[in-house]
Amino acid sequence: MKKALPILFLIVSLGASGQTWVKTTAPDSILYRGIRTWGEDTIYAWGNSPSSPVYPNTLVSSFDGGQTWTVGPWQRFNTDQVVATPAGLFAGYYYYLGSPASGHLDYTTNGTTWQTVPGSTLANGGYYKPLGLLTNGKLLLANSTNGKLNISPDYISLGSDYGTLYQYNDGYTYYAINPTNGRIIFGQNSGTTHMQYTDDNAVSFTDISLASVVGNVYSPIVRYTKNNTFFNARMGGITVSTDNGNTWTACANIGGNLSDMQANKDGQVIFARSDNQIMSSSDNGQTWTSMNNGLPTGVGSLGIGKTTDGKFWLTLYGDQPTNGGIYVIGSGGSTAEISNSEDQVIQVYPNPTSDLLNIEFDGDLTNALFTVSSLNGQTFQLPLKGTKLDVSSLESGVYFLQVEMNNSVKRVKFLKN
Length: 417
Known about the structure:
Mean pLDDT: 81
Shape: globular
Distance between the termini: 27 Å
Strand order of the largest sheet: 2-28-27-26
Low-confidence stretches: 1-17, 337-343
Number of strands: 37
Helix content: under 10%
CATH superfamily of the largest domain: YVTN repeat-like/Quinoprotein amine dehydrogenase
Radius of gyration: 21 Å
Number of helices: 1
């Protein structure tokens, strides 16, 4: 196996006038339509290849912070129902052209192959939709036929239906979490101007109405920054709450055509318009500053992702074959510069696996220490047969393989089925 030559993003602090987006090595011939992220290093973006001008058909993924990218298939998923988790990317599939209509919940762990969650297909085209991760890390799902909720115990299987989120309709698909107190606020992508919040991990819900602030229009996108501050966005504007979602006020006017919004723990919020205007605010939306340095002209932007290290990731769709792409910028608008560096990379396969996990590495594993841990931190010492790890004794779920050697630690995620 040859040594990989990944790309490292080095954060350099610059003033507002020096905020510059950096183009990654992701394919730039894709008409990107959206993006999701998990942790510091996992990015998923989907869009249209030149051969499919109408429906997204391509998934572009990175599992090393944008250093390398994998290209795989994208099905006719509902793009409002896409959630990145420790176990991979989950997406709701609904196809109504045909008899009968069909729907199901699918996931990919490697960005190239998709699997269907057992039992996620319901009668009459119904299916379980992914809503997002709760404060305890569990995946919250919704039954599309009756609005009942469901919490997956391990991401790849279903729990039991309970309660209902849909007091008004089934449009609650975006939400954000306040990590300091666990409050989750749901936005709504159709119908009237209502949101809901829960303080008990989606056991019970309380209604929030923004009608007195923005009128009778739906406001789907919700993001959290810091200090009990939430932002809520709709097509034509943004509102902010600095008291944990109890009261809301309108931000400064941004115009229309808003396509996505993100906020980070440093208090910075940025939004993208479909005409490729990127704006940023660090004063709770009272003033906005352009963030278009480094971006091509004549393109549109439909998605912003945020990794936990504070970086923002922007997907573009171009009017020419190579002027789209995925761009990155550091926290606070600092520039993410790109340089090349050699690194030793561990790969495992097959992933998922039911028994043996093959380990590939371009160095000597003779004296390496292998540890497997679950999402809740439980560790397992498993038998190693050469470069094959026997994981057959593990229960189904998501695990991490940690390899310690030569004063360094490598960590890779795998799925046991």
